[in-house]
Design a protein that fits this description.
mainly alpha, elongated, 7 helices
């Protein structure tokens, strides 16, 4: 009986011990859960101080807690935006990676759209330019054909047209003078070279022919003197040719280019004037009035351009005439004095003429490269 009672008490104690162990296990789990919740809440609300050097300072809490938070902290690349507390469901979680991708896609699409808009704007501008050029060319061609067949009228400035025609005729004559002066230079250069060679031959024969030494010597000296005077005259003629070439092919040509621009402006002006006259004779509805207004604006633009170029041509013609008289007065005087002095055999007068016009002759062989520059 006693043993039965003892065994029953022993069983009751074992049951109590098991209940106590289970209670301890649950209490330990509850304590650990509470500590984990505390750590998570502390990590979520904790501030990391930064000192003046930009380094994180030490926390007032335990160093082990700081290390645990730093090691097991959230990964910024995998951060998610949660629409709720820590205990919320998985719904409403938006990965930040998807936000970055969408923003990058939006920026790239915006840049591509901007590039397409710029390209489209350039294409439209070029198309408008080609359209205007084609319309202007059509009108000018129509006006030109009408004038050629006597159907259209043209604007004429009689005084200016006479001056332009005189300039063209003068240019043709000056070109003829320039061509003949160049031919004279070439022929005279060949004659001077022949005289130089002839003088050298006479000098050589004078040394090799004792019985004719004096005669060959006189002729050699004469040819050398003629050669020297010929080179001086060539310098004067070359200066004359250079000045005439500048006057004809630069000064006159520049004025003729302005005249060409003026004539093109006159043709455009008459083309738009004829177009405006045709529109004015038509009906006067709303569309026609709009076209007349646009034609009137174009007509005014072309008229201003025509008048401006006409004024430029008149001014250039005036200055060209003054410059031509000044240049030709100097060059004709030089040409006359040099030719007269040469054929008169007046060497001193020939040299004085070149000094008067500040002409410096190149020494013989100046155009040839030195022996250091020869290949």
């Amino acid at each position: 009986m006693f043993s039965l009672i003892c065994s029953q008490e022993l069983k009751n104690k074992k049951g109590n011990w098991k209940m106590m162990a289970i209670h301890d296990v649950h209490s330990d789990d509850h304590h650990k859960g509470a500590m984990a919740d505390g750590l998570m809440s502390k990590a979520a609300t904790m501030e990391i101080p930064i000192n003046s050097n930009g380094n994180t300072g030490t926390l007032a809490e335990d160093d082990g807690l700081e290390q645990q938070v730093m090691v097991s902290g959230p990964n910024l690349n995998e951060t998610s935006i949660v629409s709720g507390g820590y205990g919320g469901t998985a719904e409403g979680i938006i990965p930040t990676g998807s936000i970055k991708g969408s923003s990058m896609h939006h920026s790239s699409s915006s840049s591509s759209m901007a590039a397409e808009e710029a390209t489209r704007g350039v294409a439209v501008e070029k198309l408008e330019t080609v359209k205007k050029w084609g319309l202007n060319t059509y009108k000018c061609t129509k006006q030109m054909i009408s004038e050629r067949f006597g159907r259209g009228s043209r604007t004429v400035d009689l005084e200016l047209e006479a001056q332009i025609e005189l300039l063209r005729d003068t240019k043709r004559k000056y070109e003829s003078v320039l061509r003949l002066a160049r031919a004279l230079t070439n022929h005279f250069y060949n004659m001077v070279q022949t005289q130089h060679a002839l003088g050298d031959t006479f000098a050589d024969l004078s040394q090799k022919s004792p019985e004719l030494r004096d005669e060959f010597g006189y002729n050699a000296e004469t040819q050398k003197l003629l050669c020297k005077n010929g080179e001086t005259l060539l310098g004067a003629i070359n200066y004359f040719v250079s000045s005439i070439n500048t006057l004809v092919n630069k000064t006159m040509e520049d004025t003729l280019m302005t005249i060409k621009m003026y004539e093109n402006a006159r043709l455009e002006f008459d083309a738009y004037r004829s177009d405006l006259e045709e529109l004015s004779l038509g009906p006067r509805d709303a569309a026609a009035v709009a076209r007349i207004d646009a034609a009137q604006q174009q007509y005014q633009v072309q008229k201003d351009k025509y008048e401006r170029l006409r004024s430029d041509v008149a001014i250039k013609l005036k200055f060209l005439e003054e410059n031509k008289v000044k240049v030709m007065h100097k060059q004709l005087l030089l040409f006359h004095n040099a030719i007269s002095a040469y054929f008169a055999g007046n060497q001193q007068q020939l040299e004085q003429t070149l000094k008067q016009f500040n002409i410096k002759l190149k020494p013989p062989g100046a155009d040839k490269p030195s022996w250091l520059e020869e290949p």
